[in-house]
């Protein structure tokens, strides 16, 4: 365990107040202001030129434990999260065994607690074994010590409309939310691996049309309206999805959505070299879609940024493109990507970034322990970001066990300088502090 030192963080641009200093005592923000005194016995953290954000909350992380500890463990995934400025992550249910029981959910929460680098909240499966046939123990998971509120078959779409309707009805009882991996399995089957369009034709890769996502989003917002329940759209990736979300929200339908760092920045064209690192579900999209999701994030139509951090072992990724596993890393570069694509070009303020990465994801998950922002009295979950450095990403520097990092060799502006979880410094100077 890291020590419970008290800190005075000085000279930062503190999101929300614009003030300079944050006094951290006993795990809480004791005071925010300018020119605060350094009480004795307190470590001073010089944050001159850094931005102070509330700890990031990731609604969509794959930690792979149990079952694929060769790709990631709760420990290594938590380390990558801390290095990325996260203080809470939601661990997707597509592990082996699947998180579809109260015991499985409690076990993940416990392992996360034991590591202690980030709060690990299990996502519960919607259907048993993600098989799409019968509902999992949603109520038992909700009432368990893990207090599951987010349910998803992510990796698979809940394709049966009747099951989706029942899941939405069920989670209403405890104010839960169903996160949908929107992929109509007939319009985009398991072999579909490249955005359907000019590039898929040229490369001879099976196409994954945007409409396979959009029809499910359209259906599910109608089911949310019908049931009066909450649906959340995972990894929204197309302009058509944005149109549906905008329309549904204008009607007051309780729908929220997330976008990944990769769908904010990386284009379909990257597939031209057939490098499987760029193989992901949903696929990388063309420039028009990227522009649409950027605009939607900036105007709040897309509520949150979520990483869909999806580590894969080399022997699952290093295949011909068509045979490689879907998914890419995301935790460690998420904030730098947001800075590069949205903040630097003047499309989002840091306050908006804090909404999209902390306050809104916490609200969507009904997480009350985080997401409250940087205010006196709140738990000291703080991320310090240095916007001035320019980084060429090196996948070998990752805290993740896996190396399927799509940003490898890319130049990103800015880097996480330090992360504090309830006043404990979990990451600083490139090192994770257990
Ligand atoms: N995104 C991916 O391409 N893969 C994810 C599953 C998912 O998020 O759909 C994985 O578990 O590897
Ligand atoms: Zn998914
Ligand atoms: Zn996922």
UniProtKB/TrEMBL annotation:
It is an enzyme of class 3 (hydrolase). Zn(2+) 2 binds at residues 154, 181, 235. Pfam families: DHOase (PF12890). Binds 2 Zn(2+) ions per subunit. The keyword Metal-binding applies. Its cofactor is Zn(2+). The active site is at 308. Signal peptide: none annotated. PANTHER family: ALLANTOINASE. Belongs to the metallo-dependent hydrolases superfamily. DHOase family. Class I DHOase subfamily. Catalyzes the reversible cyclization of carbamoyl aspartate to dihydroorotate. This is Dihydroorotase. It comes from Dermacoccus abyssi.
